[in-house]
Design a protein that fits this description.
The complex is a heterodimer of chains A (418) and B (263). Chain A contains twelve helices and no strands. With 418 residues, chain A is mainly α. Chain A has a domain of 134 residues. In chain A, α2 runs antiparallel to α3 and α4 runs antiparallel to α5. Helix content of chain B is 40%, strand content 22%. The termini of chain B are far apart. The chains are: A mainly alpha (418), B alpha/beta (263). Chains A and B meet through α10 of A and α11, α12, β7 and β8 of B.
């Protein structure tokens, strides 16, 4: 048996924690704002308050938590040391101020300087993040499928942020010829289909097998998923210029197929698992993958009908993707990652020497199951009642979501204070 | 198909009838009838090594085995065999002389005859060996697997055959940088006690908990051998903290072997 002394790539918990706590705060804030402004959740999606809440969720919650998770995961999964911890720290502050400026500007619709300032700060933070991660990735010795997905995600992040800045400028100082809203839909496709989905896919291949204890599964579907989703997304971006209906349809279907291959890969991983019983964390995750499948089916449906005539449909669709797919997956993974990290940094040095708590003892497990019920009720209830145009039902389900999120936040605080 | 690289233990496990073929071909294989010895030796020895230990032609052996098991086998090229035997004669012919009082003798024949695995005794002798001393192993067959085991520790060997007895001298290579060797290559066989722990069925952080709990049993004579489904990067700083070190070997996809020792 040979091998050099194995080295450690322990990531900085202090920095990761900053991202996590801010993200969870943003998630709670977004849900409070939704519940108190439920009457704005109708009609067209292009409204100041909805734009603000959308960005609190997409940037403050989703992107913030992805940044934190990647700083934690990249060193462990890819066996390299993060290029710069200082950059990660600086990025956090610039990004946080950027998101505050942007969402504040959207809310009060001060669409000139403050909005552009917010978007610029966010772009600066993104560039710092890209430098940090790309330099880190160049040092990876054993390349794997997760690294491939993450590399692609960085590309889409840059496009999303840059497009966002151009759109922000255009809002106050119009210069884009053509329809502003059309460009927004591309900004959204690249953000959700590219940046967020690529990260989720890449990380899924590492984290889900680790938690379900699935080994020796074929990764072919995951590789096919990578090729198809990227070919489709790049094609769709090209479409922005050519405006050819046939190609638009073709590339959309290719992208959708890519997502189905990804889901098939997830199915294989879950099927091969050793632990058959799913805990709350894995229930959240498994459900989110099912909701991703439903989201893709809805997207395909939109290709063949004129959805602009259906009232509230973009709101229902957006809510379902943001909460049913992305947020439920993050919540599920947080129930795994945060107890582990806290345990690792507070107790692992004492393990074997004195009694240390088990992971399950670090949070209220029963509450996590109850929050699962509340959140899933809202994920289905909000889109349905939005489509039915029933405002009081929307409020009811927003409250259900808020209750579920409060339980989640309670558990996260409990873990951190443990 | 049976190839020359197959370990004897796997051969006997997957093709149980092979034992009779081996016994027919050479009486040297009779030791395999002893279950305990089979377990100890057969896992380390490939078919190729076994053929050369017993002094039978590898090609004939492979043909016989594949014929019996109905598997096609013409995988071994002649040149391969030739190269091999040439290498062997080379090792035998390279005569080296030693100071008689610097030689530590170990006759492993009685140990083998009593049905025990001599490796432990050999390793103990190796440990006690001073740098200028020479270890002489006396055996009824050529201990080919031992060449690579001790080779990794920086030992060269020289083999002499007298009638049916093999005399193998192991001596330290002076040109080799010893410190580098002791750093880079640590083997679980260096230890008297090996604690084995399979954590591949556990969810994080249970593998880490189990390992850290077992750690206090590890000392200078005891090592901890972990089987894991991934490399436990987060464990390493915790080992460092407590004065242990880890050596990780990837055995295959989702299959890692980690050796933990006291620093």
């Amino acid at each position: 048996m040979q091998g050099l002394v194995s080295t450690a790539y322990a990531p900085p918990f202090r920095i990761v924690l900053k991202y996590f706590i801010t993200a969870i705060t943003a998630f709670l804030l977004a849900n409070i704002l939704l519940a108190f402004n439920y009457d704005t959740f109708q009609g067209h999606h292009f409204q100041p308050k909805l734009l603000s809440i959308t960005h609190i969720i997409s940037l403050g919650w989703i992107t913030m938590i992805i940044f934190g998770s990647l700083f934690q995961l990249i060193p462990v999964v890819l066996q390299v040391k993060l290029f710069s911890e200082a950059l990660a720290e600086i990025q956090f502050w610039i990004f946080t101020f950027g998101v505050i400026a942007l969402t504040y500007s959207f809310w009060f619709f001060t669409i000139d300087m403050p909005l552009v300032l917010g978007a610029s700060l966010i772009n600066l933070a993104v560039i710092i993040f890209l430098i940090n991660t790309i330099v880190t990735l160049t040092k990876v010795k054993e390349w794997n499928i997760t690294a491939t997905f993450l590399s692609a995600s960085l590309f889409y992040l840059l496009i999303t942020a840059a497009a966002g800045l151009l759109l922000a400028i255009n809002l106050g100082y119009p210069y884009i010829e053509g329809n502003h809203l059309e460009y927004i839909s591309y900004h959204v496709i690249v953000a959700v289909g590219g940046w967020v989905s690529m990260v989720i896919m890449g990380v899924t291949f590492k984290l889900i097998p680790m938690f379900t204890l699935s080994h020796n599964f074929s990764k072919t579907s995951g590789k096919i998923a990578f090729v198809l989703t990227n070919a489709g997304l790049l094609g769709l971006n090209y479409e922005l210029h050519s405006k050819n209906q046939f190609f638009f349809l073709l590339f959309s279907i290719i992208t959708a197929l890519g997502f189905f291959f990804f889901l098939y890969q997830v199915y294989i991983i879950f099927k091969k698992r050793i632990r058959k019983k799913l805990d709350a964390a894995l229930k959240f995750s498994a459900t989110s993958y099912i909701f991703l499948g439903v989201s893709v089916l809805f997207t395909l449906f939109f290709l063949f009908v004129d959805y602009t005539t259906i009232r509230n449909i973009t709101l229902a669709y957006g809510y379902f993707i943001f909460f049913g797919f992305i947020s439920m997956l993050i919540v599920g993974q947080m129930y795994k990652i945060l107890p582990f990290l806290t345990w690792y940094h507070k107790y692992s040095s004492k393990a074997g020497i004195e009694k240390v708590p088990m992971l399950k003892e670090m949070y209220n497990e029963k509450l996590s199951y109850i929050s699962f019920f509340f959140i899933i009720t809202a994920v289905i209830g909000v889109p349905v009642s939005t489509l039915a145009d029933n405002n009081s039902l929307v409020l009811l389900f927003f409250s259900s979501m808020l209750a579920g999120v409060l339980m989640f936040v309670f558990n996260m605080i409990k873990i951190l204070l443990k | 198909m049976i190839t020359k690289e197959i370990k004897i233990s796997r051969l006997l496990e997957e093709y149980p009838d092979s034992l009779n073929v081996l016994l027919n071909i050479s009486p040297h294989f009779s030791k395999l009838q002893n279950k305990l010895l089979r377990k100890a030796l057969a896992g380390r020895v490939t078919l190729e090594q076994a053929a050369s230990i017993a002094g039978v032609d590898l090609n004939i052996l492979l043909n016989e085995l594949n014929k019996l098991n109905g598997t096609s086998g013409n995988s071994v090229s002649e040149t391969n065999i030739n190269n091999n035997s040439k290498e062997e004669t080379e090792t035998v012919s390279k005569e080296v002389s030693f100071d008689e009082d610097k030689i530590v003798r170990l006759d492993v024949r009685p140990i083998l005859n009593s049905g025990k695995d001599p490796l432990k005794d050999i390793m103990q002798k190796v440990k006690q060996l001073k740098d200028d001393e020479v270890l002489l192993i006396i055996n009824s067959f050529e201990p080919i697997p031992l060449y690579s085991v001790l080779g990794k520790k920086g030992f060269s060997h020289f083999t002499k055959k007298e009638e049916q007895t093999f005399f193998v001298y192991f001596y330290k290579n002076k040109e080799e940088d010893k410190s580098e060797f002791s750093q880079a290559v640590i083997d679980e066989n260096d230890f008297e006690n090996i604690i084995e722990l399979d954590v591949s069925q556990l969810q994080p952080p249970e593998p880490m908990m189990k390992i850290l709990e077992t750690l206090n049993q590890v000392d200078e004579k005891t090592c901890l051998l972990i089987y894991h489904h991934r490399e436990p990067h987060l464990l390493y700083p915790k080992l460092e903290e407590r004065g242990y070190q880890a050596f990780c070997n990837k055995l295959g996809e989702d299959h890692y072997k980690i050796l933990i020792t006291k620093k």
